[in-house]
Design goal:
The complex is a heterodimer of chains A (192) and B (241).
Chain A (H helix, E strand, L loop, with lengths): L35 E9 L9 E6 L25 E5 L5 E7 L4 E2 L5 E2 L2 E8 L6 E7 L9 H4 L10 E2 L1 E4 L2 E5 L2 E2 L11 E2 L1
Parallel strand pairs in A: 1-11, 1-12, 8-9
Antiparallel strand pairs in A: 1-4, 2-3, 2-7, 5-6, 7-8, 10-11
Chain B lengths: L31 E2 L4 H4 L30 E9 L10 E6 L24 E5 L5 E7 L4 E3 L5 E3 L2 E7 L7 E6 L10 H4 L4 H5 L4 E2 L10 E4 L2 E2 L20
Parallel strand pairs in B: 2-11, 2-12
Antiparallel strand pairs in B: 2-5, 3-4, 3-8, 6-7, 8-9, 10-11
């Protein structure tokens, strides 16, 4: 098979905001099934300065653990009130948030499972390609068996674990993203 | 699915000194290699919101009823996978400066005029042959603060949401023959001339429309997974086809 030359990436630059649709950081409506959660965090650079011009995208399974995608044909329910994609930009303080539901477990191999997680892509001026990471839920006991977390050196795993808090009656998982830092503070990014 | 990773001969490094903004925003740690799972082999491209025909005409989609000023330009091409097969249903989004080199954006401080009839954003979906098409105006070059007398060559930003999370692509398309290419650290962050050339559109006289607009062709090839994925779900021969 001829392998075509893959197209290289370039930075998203500082002027991408026009492609983000208002409300794209709210993934749920009144009919969505599952535990409502808010994901909130800040993006930081290597000086621990906020990154005010980052684009954050998330992709996740629904509360049952099903992805809305043609290759996910498992007999796990879809939710007609949930797609699973969100997109937003950081504000002048580097902050972002999403309203969503906690995803269910999804398979790793045919008989092993991944802990609930949300896939994240980070783009910004100064990033020549987007970065891929994952949000895990710090209070979820299934993290201990998660095969992807096992690939991460133990001292770095906590960068992927979002702590839970209840703020004004809402469940908030905090997920800061450090683009650059020391090994134990820089967010873990993945290559596939 | 053809295994194609993030080839260091093709993709820019995260740290590229000549592009100063990379200095404090590039990770120090190498990314951790994982085998693609259902989480990365799925993605929002096939399922997110519909687009309308007007979305792909940037000369008229500002909603003013007027037409943008500039050299009318048609940009079209195919989205392919590494095996050369078309990728239908890809969401292609573009954004760009106006003909004077100014973005409609609160952070753009360039003293060039705005065009009230140009918003500078478009979107469309690839058809069954993987083809996308935009009508726009040729963007202007513009100055930036990276170094003394720095100018970005004319370019159109592209965002592609294809069949999977790992095929996500954000890039820029350049115009052929621009003397600023050699001076641009963002384009030159790509390590090889062959890979840089993939970001330069070709003038296409068969796309040019008489008495209307000049045509350019720009194909994009999406990457796939580096390693053979697990297939814990019911496997299908092709994604999204």
């Amino acid at each position: 098979m001829t392998v075509r030359g893959v197209t290289p990436s370039q930075t998203v630059g500082p002027f991408f905001h026009g492609i983000i649709v208002a409300g794209q950081n709210v993934l749920v409506n009144a009919a969505t099934v599952g535990e409502r959660i808010r994901i909130a965090g800040c993006v930081f650079d290597g000086d621990r300065a906020p990154v005010p011009d980052a684009a954050i995208e998330i992709w996740q399974a629904n509360a049952h653990g099903r992805y809305r995608h043609p290759i996910d044909r498992r007999s796990v329910p879809l939710d007609s009130a949930f797609v699973g994609f969100g997109r937003t930009a950081t504000d002048p303080a580097g902050a972002y948030w999403f309203e969503t539901v906690k995803p269910g477990v999804v398979p790793y191999t045919a008989d092993t499972w991944q802990a609930p997680h949300i896939n994240v892509a980070v783009s910004a001026r100064g990033l020549l390609d987007h970065l891929l990471t994952r949000i895990y839920f710090e209070d979820d006991p299934r993290n201990a068996e998660d095969p992807v977390l096992q690939r991460v050196p133990a001292p770095r795993r906590q960068t992927l674990l979002a702590p839970r808090a209840v703020v004004d009656g809402k469940i908030v998982y905090r997920f800061d993203i450090a683009l650059q830092g020391e090994a134990e503070t820089e967010t873990v990014f993945f290559d596939l | 699915m053809t295994p194609i990773g993030r080839d260091p001969e093709v993709f820019p490094p995260y740290l590229y000194d000549a592009y100063r903004a990379t200095l404090r925003r590039s990770p120090h740690e190498a990314p951790i290699e994982i085998r693609p799972t259902l989480s990365e082999l799925t993605g929002p491209g096939p399922v997110i919101s519909a687009v309308t025909a007007e979305d792909s005409d940037l000369t008229r989609n500002a909603g003013t009823g007027g037409e943008a000023i500039g050299e009318r330009t048609i940009v079209t091409g195919r989205v392919l996978d590494g095996g050369g097969d078309p990728v239908p249903g890809t969401l292609v989004e573009v954004w760009q400066a106006n003909a004077a080199g100014r973005y409609r954006h609160r952070s753009d401080q360039h003293g060039a005029p705005l065009d009230p009839n140009f918003f500078g954003v478009g979107r469309c979906r690839t058809d069954a042959q993987g083809v996308y098409r935009f009508t726009t105006i040729r963007p202007g070059a513009y100055p930036w603060e990276n170094h003394e007398n720095a100018w970005r060559p004319a370019h159109i930003h592209f965002s592609l949401l294809g069949p999977s999370w790992l095929s996500r692509l954000i890039t820029q398309m350049y115009f052929p023959g621009d003397p600023l290419h050699a001076l641009d650290p963002i384009l030159n962050s790509i390590p090889t001339a062959a890979a840089r050339a993939r970001l330069v559109a070709q003038y296409a006289h068969d796309v040019t429309q008489p008495r209307f607009a000049l045509g350019y062709r720009f194909d994009l090839v999406l990457r796939g997974p580096r390693a053979t994925p697990f297939e814990p779900f019911e496997p299908v021969a092709r994604v999204d086809r």
